[in-house]
Amino acid sequence: xxxxxxxxxxxxxxxxxxxxxxxxxxxxxxxxxxxxxxxxxxxxxxxxxxxxxxxxxxxxxxxxxxxxxxxxxxxxxxxxxxxxxxxxxxxxxxxxxxxxxxxxxxxxxxxxxxxxxxxxxxxxxxxxxxxxxxxxxxxxxxxxxxxxxxxxxxxxxxxxxxxxxxxxxxxxxxxxxxxxxxxxxxxxxxxxxxxxxxxxxxxxxxxxxxxxxxxxxxxxxxxxxxxxxxxxxxxxxxxxxxxxxxxxxxxxxxxxxxxxxxxxxxxxxxxxxxxxxxxxxxxxxxxxxxxxxxxxxxxxxxxxxxxxxxxxxxxxxxxxxxxxxxxxxxxxxxxxxxxxxxxxxxxxxxxxxxxxxxxxxxxxxxxxxxxxxxxxxxxxxxxxxxxxxxxxxxxxxxxxxxxxxxxxxxxxxxxxxxxxxxxxxxxxxxxxxxxxxxxxxxxxxxxxxxxxxxxxxxxxxxxxxxxxxxxxxxxxxxxxxxxxxxxxxxxxxxxxxxxxxxxxxxxxxxxxxxxxxxxxxxxxxxxxxxxxxxxxxxxxxxxxxxxxxxxxxxxxxxxxxxxxxxxxxxxxxxxxxxxxxxxxxxxxxxxxxxxxxxxxxxxxxxxxxxxxxxxxxxxxxxxxxxxxxxxxxxxxxxxxxxxx
Length: 644
Ligand code: WTA
What we know:
By secondary structure, this protein is α/β, with parallel strands linked by helices. Helix content is 32%, strand content 24%. 5'-O-[(S)-ethoxy(hydroxy)phosphoryl]adenosine binds at residues 260, 305-307, 382-385, 407-412, 433, 495-497, 509, 511-512, 518, 523.
């Protein structure tokens, strides 16, 4: 059993919840009287235009999930307008640009004007309630303005990470039938410039639904504009009024669609709705980060993923917090970038992914040692299991043993954090996400579909009953939503992760049980990468598996059968990697490509991924006796050609 780390006294003293008994009592109450618990929180955390009479109406037998359904409110009003009286001059967003020294402070009052102008701009372009708007922007304030502007007029945004390719962007535009796309002429990430507008041009080429492309000027380079379709945001905004009344929306109107990878098929457009989502993100932001009014809260995720939605924009702003938006990379211009920013801004909560921690750990302690880091109180981790080594480095060299680490487990589907330490009460264990938050009832299910009631125990992680932040459906395909998450284990939400509960009741997330990979905290389906590789004319068949990777957590290993004789293996490997870069995006490119003459298959023709996974990770001993396999020669060939 690993060492336990007590709650640092200075964290406990100030914490909103600081006694274990208090957590236990509240937790019990939240499960016993679920609706009462959430009804109370909903009235505390949110400002309603019309109060609700029914708290929840959920049925996992059909995948129907509704919270506060006859209530009405506006999310942007909750994130901005209601703070204007007491927090008008408080910074809402502290923007850190790509270059050191490039920064901007946006107060709540300024945020209000900017969001209203963006909302009016969208309305002037013909966008109205229910219309979809694709946002393909780098981490600049206009990204937050666009999201909140959609929320203000009831349009549904879908942010696409600015590292996705034209094809991925195009598929998302097509799937949600977006009316408007908001992009930038170029994006900047460290020393790199990304031609966002030209990627976007390719993506909208056949998109009938797109009536306008709005372009934010991020760099001064020349940009091709198509007359009648493309508009510079600065020109449209010049005539847009800084006042725009928020549209009153139903609690269950859609707020956004976010595409995420699954084990099969194309990415799913998960739908989150207004009130439940906002309540859950605000509630968890407050308790997991032990949020206080004077905090400087900094999450360095990208708004292209759920973490950015929930814990850069919606949760913190609903709580009236000062939230940092970070455009650059952890190592630009040097590996002290985060630590310099933390000292300069006086950051109190810092939230990142294990992959970034591991990358910075490799650069050595000398970088954090240059800075005091004394403003820090809470250090968050998200996106993949954090290994003990990285946890300890974060704890010792960034937190100086005086901060609490919150290893937060959650998913795009869950809207917000479900399992995490609470800073003032939870003794932490490196690598464990510890205990469920209020209202969350995690269950482990064994291979026979039965609940594991023992402690310790392990199984597939499911959640019994609903919580307000849960995704409501897959855009345009409710059957897929039901089939993916509710069909197999009746009465449960199936997360797709495996987990263990140790003898102290701590939860340890053990990774995906399906064919989803967490590569540098980015979620990718093996099927998705395989079908990208299929675009490469050199390959007739491919099988992709995950392998342990020092920095990325999981690396991508692709086995490919060539369509013809290959002259240069090196060139062929490059071709495969490049195809994936083009079809999905650079972050999905395989780390290793191995050409093989065949793949091990079952009699029914299914690829034996278990064997491939073992070979790719070099776990050759546990392959067992392969001579009994139908295609043992294939396995031997693959083993001997393994890339490392
Ligand atoms: C993984 C990211 C271990 C998990 C918010 C989950 C984690 C997937 C943790 C969701 C954690 C996330 N420990 N694994 N603290 N947090 N995961 O949808 O496999 O991009 O199912 O949401 O990331 O990824 P997604």
